């Protein structure tokens, strides 16, 4: 009990003296705030991208690609294959008894960003007539749906916000012809909002191609997936890979998400090293300024444990304040901010940065770790400092 009273007394005395050392204490707070703000904001990019990709998938939908294809861009399915996929076991059918499937194809077209005029590749997706039934989250927010057999397209809400020439009645020129924008759509904030949609047969005709690159299927239920997959993979007339839609999009985002996370932790780690040295310097200065006080307390019988904990408590408090400030700054400036990935095989992906509570917690943990490391050695010095040496140094 005596030890805890000593710890409380010394720690309270130490914390009350912080205003007298405000300028040096701010070094820790500002340094750690910068580390946490950078770390959280970069991780928010990975979180936002994964959220956007995962929103595109549902467990009761499946996507079928040619066997061995890593993505839609590398897949080709014939018309016969599309027909056989629609006849698979577990495929949901509409009121007329027709399978709810959408044979789809993707073309990349050149567009220009509104912000800086940079040229980028954007995905133009051809979809089948059952697309709206397949995706109940899809809705037209402005204008109307495209008509088949006419060079008309609709633009995702995110694409409309990012790229030039995406207003209704604007015309987009591709190598296959000129397309008229007739509507803007929303699909629940998923990755399809980064795309342009048109009728798949019209797109294939304009590009002088046939078949499809993927087939998206609505299942009878979540539990129907395995039976559907088995019915296709065991069919000798087909050579396909079958994925749950959610798993497919998660797989597509995994690599780039991992790269972004690595960048965040590397950059954050480099900045953290600088913050640790700043904390070390500040806490050593604080200990040196309190040599007389520490020596007096030691002479009065206060133990070394109280000295260590008092210094660590100060470092942790300052670190937590810095971490909280950094997390708030990241949330204020980056949460909800719209960005896009660089050009990929699937074109640009537009998404919002997401500063989630989990990222804030990661930032605070990093701040505490930096504070502990930065305060540890000064704390040990305060505990080991001989009383006579401290008194002579004053």
What structural keywords apply?
12 helices; 394 residues; ten-stranded mixed β-sheet; single chain
**How would you describe the shape?**
elongated
Q: Provide the residue-averaged pLDDT.
A: 82
Low-confidence stretches: none
Q: Please work out how many helical segments DSSP would assign.
A: 12
Portion of residues in helices?
Answer: 40-55%
Question: Nutshell version of this structure?
Answer:
With 394 residues, this protein is an alpha+beta fold. The protein is built from twelve helices and twelve strands.
Notes on the structure:
The chain is elongated and about 90 Å long. With 394 residues, it is α+β, with helices and mostly antiparallel strands. The protein has helices at 2-16, 22-55, 79-86, 131-134, 157-162, 200-207, 225-233, 245-289, 291-299, 304-334, 357-384, 387-393; strands spanning 61-66, 101-112, 119-127, 139-143, 152-156, 171-174, 177-186, 196-199, 214-218, 240-244, 338-340, 350-352. The protein is 52% helix and 18% strand. Strands 1, 2, 3, 4, 5, 6, 7, 8, 9 and 10 form a ten-stranded mixed β-sheet that branches. Strands 11-12 form a two-stranded antiparallel ribbon. It is built from twelve helices and twelve strands.
What is the secondary structure topology, with strand pairs?
Elements lengths: L1 H15 L5 H34 L5 E6 L12 H8 L14 E12 L6 E9 L3 H4 L4 E5 L8 E5 H6 L8 E4 L2 E10 L9 E4 H8 L6 E5 L6 H9 L6 E5 H45 L1 H9 L4 H31 L3 E3 L9 E3 L4 H28 L2 H7 L1
Parallel strand pairs: 3-8, 5-7
Antiparallel strand pairs: 1-9, 1-10, 2-3, 2-9, 4-7, 5-8, 6-7, 11-12
